[in-house]
Write a structure and sequence with these properties.
Number of strands of chain B: 12
Shape of chain B: globular
Distance between the termini of chain B: 90 Å
Order of helices and strands of chain B: HEEEHHEEHHHHHEHEEHHEEHHHHHEHE
Radius of gyration of chain A: 23 Å
Oligomer: heterodimer
Strand order of the largest sheet of chain B: 1-2-6-3-5-4
Largest sheet of chain A: 6 strands, mixed
Number of helices of chain B: 17
Structural class of chain A: alpha+beta
Helix content of chain B: 25-40%
Shape of chain A: globular
Distance between the termini of chain A: 54 Å
Number of strands of chain A: 11
Number of helices of chain A: 15
Strand order of the largest sheet of chain A: 1-2-6-3-5-4
Largest sheet of chain B: 6 strands, mixed
Helix content of chain A: 40-55%
C-alpha cells in the first residue's frame, strides 16, 4: 500500500504548476486602475468595479453605512433610474455587490456582446448616482438592510457571533470594531447628507479599480473604458485606515444565550492581515487542526471522544489584521464546559509539535489544487485579481500567492502557530436558552 | 453603427484632447449576437450497465466526476427517513482494507475532494480531483462502492453525528419551514421527509439496516458516471473499466409511493420565541421533473418570483422593505414536486406579507396576467445566461448529474434552447393559471408565535402548531372550570 501512495505523491507534485493567466494593468489619466484578463473559452465577460472603501472607513455612529450605501448603488442613477438589475436579468447576467471591512465591490457577468452595457451602467452610477437619489429609496433600503441583519445575524443559528468577534476583539475606535452590517440604531441615523458625502468622497475613479475578465476584444474594450470612464474627474484615493495589531491583555470569556439547540464554543486570537507575513502559515495551521478525520482537533474531539458534533478552525483575513477562530459545537448531551475543556486540551496538545511532513504535504496538496478554482470563472478571477492589486499593489500575484503556501516549512508554520495562538484569547460561548438581548 | 462616431472622439482623446462625456440618451445596443451551443456529451455504456456521460474540458488540469445511482432516499422505509443517507455515510468509514482514518488521509493526500450524499431520487458520489490523480482516486472510489466494511463503532459515531445534525437544523427557522412544508404536503409518502432524516426517524436505525440499504441502493444498474475535465476519452474508458468493471448488480430498493391523502389546507406554525423575523411560505403540490410544462412553468414563474426583479421581490423588498428577499420556485423530484413562495420577513409583517403573497397569486390568475415584456425577459434571461452555466468543471458536472437525478436524457440541453424559445405568451399565461389558481395552497410559518398567531385571523385557515420536525403539537388540555382555584 505504501508504494502506491508514494507514486501518487510524485504524480501530484509534477502536475500542479500555478495556473497561468494573462493580466494587463492600465491606469487612466484620472487615476482609474483597469485590470484586464482575457479568456475566450465561453462568450462571457465579467466586470468588477471595486471601490477602496469599506466599513473601516465609516465614521463614529454610522456603523453599517458603507454596506447600506452599496445597496443605494442599485437603486438607479440619473440616466437609468430604475432597479440596477432591470437591464441585466433579461440578458441572463448575474449582478451583485458585496461590502467588507476594506472594500466594496460591484460586479456583473454578462454575455460578451453586452460588455458595453455593463460599462455604461457602472459608469452612470459612478458619475450620476446622486441626481436619482431620494429619501424614499434610502428609507426603503434601510429597512431591507435591517432585514438582512435579521436574516443573517439574528435568526441564523450562531450568526450573532460575528458581531461579538468584532466588538470584543478590537478596541473602541478601531476600524474593525464595527461589523459591516452595523447596528439598527446607527442604520436608523443614516441620512441623505451621509449618502451624498460618502459618494463624493469615495466613489471616484482614483479610488476605484475596474477589472474586466473573459471574452472581450482588447482594443475595443480599451476605447470603451476611455469613453465611459475617461472624462470623470479624478477625486482622491481614500486614506487606508491604520491601526496597530491589537493585543488581548487577558483571556476573556463571554456567554451568550440564543435560540440554538446545541452549545458552541469559539476561541479567537489576532493574526496578521491578508498577504502579510504569517498569514499563510495560519491558513495552513487551520488545516492541520481541523481538515480531515485525522486532523489534530477533529480526531480527538469528534472521532475519539465524541464530545463535539463538529470542530473547525479558520482565519478571518482582512487588510490590516485578521483573526483566527477555533470553534466546536457540542455533541447532544454534552455541556458547553465539557466541550470547551476538551477543545482547550486538544489544542494545547496540537500546539506542541510542528506539522509532520505527511500533514504538511496533505495540506499543501489541497492548497495547490485550490488555485485552479480561483481563476476558473470570470467573476472569481476578477475578484482575486482586484484583491491582489488592492492589497499587494500588483494584480500579477497569483504565482507568488501560491508560493506563500508551498514555500512554507514545518518550522515556520509551527513558529507562527505558537506566536499567534500562544497568547491570550477571547472565548465566546453560545448556549441554549432562547433569544437574549446580547444575541440581538 | 452606433459605435463609429464615439470611437473617433476617443481616438482623438488619446492624443490629449479632453474626452467628451458618453452618449446617455439610451442604453447601448449589444455588439452583434452570440452564437453558442452547449458542448456535446459523449456517452457509452460499460458492461456492468453503468452509463458514462463524458465531457472533455481543458481549462485546468482537473477532473470532476459524479456517480449517480438510480435509487435514493425515497426508498427509505416508513418511519426510517434518513436510512439511505446514513448508509451512504458508512461507505467511507473503512473500505478495501483501509480504516476510516486511512481512507480519509488517502483522499486528502491526493487532494481529491470526496463527497457522497443521498437525495430523493438518487445517491451522488462526487470526486473533484487533479487529472493526474484520476486512477488512484477511482481505486479508492471502487473500495467505497464494493468493499466497504461497515464497522460497528464507526456506525455508532456516524449515527450520532446525523442525529446531532438534524437537531441543529431544528434551530434554523428556514429549515424548519421546509421540513414542515414537505410533511404537510406529502405526509408519510414520497417526498414527505428530508433525505437526511429527522432526529426521531434516525434514532432507531441499526447497522444491519444500513448495510442492507446500501446493498439495495448503491448498485451500477441504472446508475451513471458523469466525467467532466482534462482527460482523454480512451484513457478514461480504460480507467473506469479497471476500477469499476467488477462492480455488478441492480438496485432492489423501490421508491415509496405518493400519499393519496389530500394535504390538509391550514396554517402550520412553528414557534421560535423572540425571533425578529418569520420564515414564511405559501405552498402547494406540483408535478415532478417529468412535467411536460416544466419549462413553461419556469418562464411564468420568472416574473412572479423567479428573479430579483420579479413581482414578489419588487413588492415585498424593493417597495415595502419587509424582507431581504422573496422568491417563488418549483422544487421538483421525479415523482412529485412543490410550488412555493417564500421569504424571511420582519416578525410584525408576517400577516401582511402573506396577504401580499396571496395577492400576487390572485393578480397572476386574471387581473394582471404575465405580460409580453415579462415573457421576453424570462426567455431572454434563460437563453442568454445559458453559456455562463458552463464555466466551472465542477458545476458542469453537477448540472449534468442533476439530469440523471431528474430522469432527463443526456441531450436535454441540446433541445432545451428551442423549448424555452417555444414558450409563447399564450402558453406562459395558461401555465401560470394552471399553477397559481387553486384552493389548495397551504401556509407554513416559522417564527415568534406570540407576535404572529393573533394576526392570522381572516385568512380562512385554521392554525396547526407543529414542532421543527413537522410533528403536530397537541393543544394543552384546558382545565375544567370546577377545578379552578
Amino acid at each position: 500500500m505504501k508504494g502506491l501512495l508514494v507514486m501518487m505523491v510524485v504524480a501530484l507534485c509534477g502536475a500542479a504548476p500555478p495556473p497561468e493567466i494573462e493580466i494587463e494593468t492600465w491606469t487612466l489619466d484620472n487615476g482609474l486602475t483597469v485590470l484586464l484578463s482575457h479568456d475566450d473559452r465561453l462568450p462571457v465577460v465579467g466586470v468588477e468595479v471595486r471601490y477602496l472603501v469599506g466599513s473601516s472607513h465609516e465614521r463614529e455612529g454610522r456603523s453599517g453605512f458603507a454596506h447600506l450605501f452599496e445597496h443605494m448603488m442599485f437603486q438607479g442613477s440619473k440616466h437609468a433610474d430604475y432597479d440596477y438589475f432591470a437591464p441585466f436579468e433579461p440578458i441572463g447576467a448575474a449582478a451583485n455587490g458585496t461590502t467588507s471591512t476594506d472594500r466594496t465591490n460591484y460586479y456583473e457577468r454578462v454575455p460578451s456582446n453586452y460588455l458595453e452595457l455593463a460599462l455604461w451602467m457602472e459608469s452612470d452610477r459612478m458619475e450620476h448616482l446622486l441626481p436619482a437619489m431620494t429619501q424614499k429609496k434610502l428609507d426603503n433600503q434601510r429597512d431591507v438592510v435591517k432585514n438582512e441583519r435579521r436574516q443573517r445575524y439574528e435568526t441564523t443559528p450562531y450568526g450573532i457571533v460575528w458581531k461579538i468577534f468584532h466588538n470584543s476583539l478590537f478596541p473602541k475606535g478601531h476600524p474593525y470594531q464595527r461589523t459591516t452590517i452595523g447596528s439598527h440604531e446607527d442604520l436608523s441615523k443614516a441620512s441623505m447628507d451621509d449618502v451624498k458625502g460618502f459618494f463624493r468622497e469615495y466613489y471616484v475613479p482614483t479610488n476605484a479599480v475596474l477589472t474586466i475578465v473573459g471574452d472581450y476584444d482588447p482594443e475595443t474594450t480599451k476605447l470603451l473604458v476611455e469613453r465611459y470612464f475617461g472624462h470623470l474627474p479624478a477625486g482622491k484615493r481614500a486614506k487606508t485606515p491604520t491601526a496597530d495589531l491589537p493585543k488581548l491583555e487577558k483571556d476573556q470569556q463571554l456567554t451568550i444565550t440564543d435560540t440554538v439547540k446545541l452549545p458552541r464554543v469559539h476561541l479567537a486570537w489576532h493574526t496578521p492581515g491578508l498577504y502579510i507575513d504569517g498569514d499563510a502559515s495560519m491558513d495552513v495551521w487551520a488545516s492541520v487542526l481541523t481538515d480531515g478525520k485525522t486532523s489534530r482537533l477533529y480526531k480527538p474531539l469528534v472521532y475519539e471522544q465524541k464530545v463535539a458534533k463538529d470542530v473547525s478552525a479558520f482565519q478571518v483575513s482582512m487588510a490590516m489584521s485578521g483573526f483566527f477562530v477555533v470553534q466546536a459545537t457540542a455533541a447532544p448531551g454534552k455541556t458547553v464546559d465539557e466541550v470547551a475543556a476538551a477543545l482547550k486540551a486538544a489544542l494545547a496538545e496540537a500546539q506542541k509539535t510542528p506539522p509532520t511532513s505527511d500533514e504538511l504535504e496533505r495540506v499543501l496538496n489541497g492548497w495547490r489544487k485550490s488555485f485552479f478554482g480561483r481563476v476558473e470563472s470570470v467573476m472569481s478571477r476578477a475578484r482575486i485579481l482586484s484583491n491582489y492589486y488592492h492589497l499587494t499593489g500588483s494584480a500579477d500575484y497569483l504565482a507568488q500567492d501560491l508560493e506563500r503556501y508551498t514555500g512554507l516549512t514545518a518550522k515556520t508554520v509551527h513558529d507562527d502557530a505558537v506566536k499567534y495562538l500562544g497568547g491570550h484569547h477571547l472565548q465566546i460561548d453560545i448556549i441554549v436558552g432562547g433569544k437574549s438581548e446580547e444575541a440581538k | 453603427m452606433r459605435h463609429i462616431i464615439p470611437l473617433t472622439v476617443l481616438l482623438m482623446a488619446c492624443g490629449g484632447t479632453p474626452v467628451l462625456p458618453p452618449d446617455r440618451s439610451a442604453l447601448p445596443e449589444p455588439a452583434g449576437t452570440v452564437d453558442w451551443a452547449p458542448p456535446t456529451v459523449t456517452t457509452w455504456k460499460m458492461e456492468n450497465g453503468l452509463e458514462v456521460w463524458f465531457l472533455r474540458q481543458k481549462q485546468a488540469p482537473l477532473v470532476s466526476l459524479r456517480l449517480v445511482t438510480s435509487r435514493g432516499a425515497s426508498t427509505d422505509p416508513a418511519g426510517k427517513a434518513g436510512l439511505t443517507a446514513l448508509a451512504v455515510d458508512m461507505l467511507d468509514e473503512g473500505a478495501g482494507g483501509k480504516s476510516a482514518l486511512e481512507l480519509a488521509d488517502a483522499w486528502q493526500r491526493l487532494a481529491t475532494d470526496y463527497g457522497a450524499s443521498a437525495s430523493t431520487d438518487g445517491v451522488t458520489f462526487s470526486l473533484d480531483m487533479l487529472a493526474d490523480n484520476l486512477d488512484p482516486s477511482l481505486a479508492l472510489l471502487a473500495d467505497v462502492l464494493m468493499r466497504s466494511a461497515f464497522p460497528a463503532d464507526e456506525f455508532a459515531r456516524r449515527k450520532q453525528q446525523r442525529i446531532a445534525g438534524a437537531l441543529a437544523r431544528e434551530a434554523n427557522p428556514m429549515q424548519a419551514m421546509f421540513v414542515n412544508i414537505r410533511r404537510a404536503l406529502f405526509a408519510e409518502g414520497y417526498g414527505g421527509f428530508p433525505a437526511g432524516g429527522l432526529r426521531t426517524t434516525l434514532a432507531g436505525l441499526t447497522l444491519d439496516e444500513t448495510k442492507a440499504q446500501a446493498a439495495a441502493v448503491v448498485k451500477p444498474g441504472g446508475a451513471g458516471v458523469i466525467v467532466v475535465g482534462d482527460v482523454e476519452r480512451d484513457a478514461l474508458e480504460a480507467s473506469l473499466n479497471t476500477a469499476l468493471g467488477e462492480w455488478k448488480g441492480a438496485p432492489s430498493a423501490t421508491a415509496g409511493s405518493l400519499s393519496e391523502q389530500e394535504p390538509q389546507r391550514a396554517i402550520y406554525l412553528v414557534d421560535f420565541p423572540g425571533l425578529s423575523q418569520s420564515a414564511i411560505a405559501v405552498a402547494r403540490r406540483s408535478p415532478g421533473t417529468g412535467a411536460a410544462d416544466a419549462i413553461a412553468a419556469t418562464v411564468f414563474n420568472w416574473a412572479l418570483g423567479g428573479a430579483f426583479t420579479s413581482r414578489l421581490n419588487m413588492n415585498l423588498r424593493e417597495d415595502k422593505g419587509w424582507t431581504y428577499g422573496a422568491r417563488a420556485s418549483f422544487n421538483r423530484w421525479q415523482a412529485a414536486g412543490m410550488y412555493l413562495m417564500y421569504a424571511k420577513v420582519k416578525a410584525d409583517k408576517t400577516r401582511v406579507s402573506l396577504d401580499e403573497m396571496f395577492g400576487e397569486l390572485a393578480a397572476m390568475q386574471g387581473p394582471k396576467p404575465t405580460t409580453a415584456e415579462e415573457r421576453e425577459k424570462a426567455v431572454g434571461g434563460l437563453l442568454q445566461g445559458f453559456p455562463a452555466k458552463f464555466e466551472r468543471m465542477s458545476s458542469v458536472a453537477g448540472r449534468i448529474a442533476t439530469l440523471r437525478l431528474d430522469a432527463r436524457p443526456v441531450d436535454y440541453y441540446s433541445t432545451w434552447t428551442a423549448k424555452v424559445d417555444a414558450v409563447t405568451l399564450e402558453i406562459a399565461r395558461a401555465t401560470a393559471k394552471k399553477y397559481t389558481v387553486g384552493d389548495d395552497f397551504l401556509v407554513v410559518i416559522a417564527g415568534d408565535r406570540k407576535t404572529v398567531e393573533p394576526t392570522l385571523e381572516g385568512l380562512g385557515l385554521s392554525v396547526i402548531v407543529c414542532d421543527a420536525q413537522g410533528n403536530r403539537i397537541p393543544d394543552p388540555p384546558t382545565e375544567p372550570p370546577d377545578q379552578a382555584k
